[in-house]
Amino acid sequence: MRVLVTGGAGFIGGHLAEAFAGDGHDVVVLDNFDPYYDTRIKEHNVETGREAAAESDGSYDLVEGDVRDADLVDDLVADADSVYHQAAQAGVRTDYSPRKYDEVNVDGTLNVLDAARDHGVERLVFASSSSVYGKPRYLPYDEDHLTTPISPYGTSKLAGERYAMVYAERYGVPAVALRYFTVYGPRMRPNMAISNFVSRCLNGEPPVIYGDGTQTRDMTYVEDILAANRALLDTDAADGEVMNVGSTDNIDIETLATEIRDQLAPELELEYTDAYEVDADHSHADVSKASELIGYEPTYTIREGVEAFVEWYRANREWYEPLVRNS
Ligand code: NAD
């Protein structure tokens, strides 16, 4: 199968491209190497995808380009059987203007959807986010929970997701939106809590918590995200649906920092700094819908996922750590 992964040089897209190429598919990655974090991580992601293709019957092609370029997107989608649309200005905390989120995350998504409508694809998977929920009315969130995002990022993800669902309903595009809950794992974005906590502890520096650490998160190991995406290659059971994909193993940030500290540098005290306004207080996924429709079951507890990440971090410390510490 020919699979287009937009944003495929990024963290999650890189894992998808690697997995699909390793499974023997012909993978095309579209990515503009946006420099909002160190692009050397993206070069490693691309390398990993190429290696996976070399070891299988699959192939891997990189197209350096922009999802805002409608003609380019049209050409690439025309040749694809399935599309995994991961390209985005990611992250609630980046201080880009709302227009950047809008141009990349909404207009870029419309380019992908238009092309999918015009050429037909077997599946179009849109990477959405738990940030579409905003402040919780109840936890864990199911997909019927009110969506009132509190950041430009969350707002743009909600718009992209709604467009995907409208294209599914009006034009029959086989679109699925997955609401990811804080994803972590090898080659993760350097500016996230787990990579920072691990890096600081291994360097004898206290982990720094934004706010009082009572915020809770479903931290989802990237292998579980992969499993949900892989399942969608082979089933139309979730077409036209939005689904939560989280870990369900909820943890508060102070406990997370404490556990990493206890494991790596027990002598350190935790440090606290100002909270970010756009950070959600709590996020917690009810994944029953994904479980019912595509058999999704998270397999990594936070403890297991963090252990796996730390093992990978130690093995890749030489190249990865400087990029985390400069982020
Ligand atoms: P990432 O930043 O590592 O990956 C996004 C990729 O998109 C990057 O490689 C970037 O260069 C590329 N990109 C950005 N703008 C582009 C453009 N205009 N044209 C082409 N490529 C462009 O982020 P990630 O963590 O891998 O996130 C992947 C997707 O999952 C995103 O859509 C994000 O919104 C979503 N998501 C991620 C998380 C998480 O915790 N990592 C949580 C919820 C949702």
UniProtKB/TrEMBL annotation:
NAD-dependent epimerase/dehydratase domain location: 3-246
Family statement: Belongs to the NAD(P)-dependent epimerase/dehydratase family.
The name this protein goes by in its record: Nucleoside-diphosphate-sugar epimerase (UDP-glucose 4-epimerase)
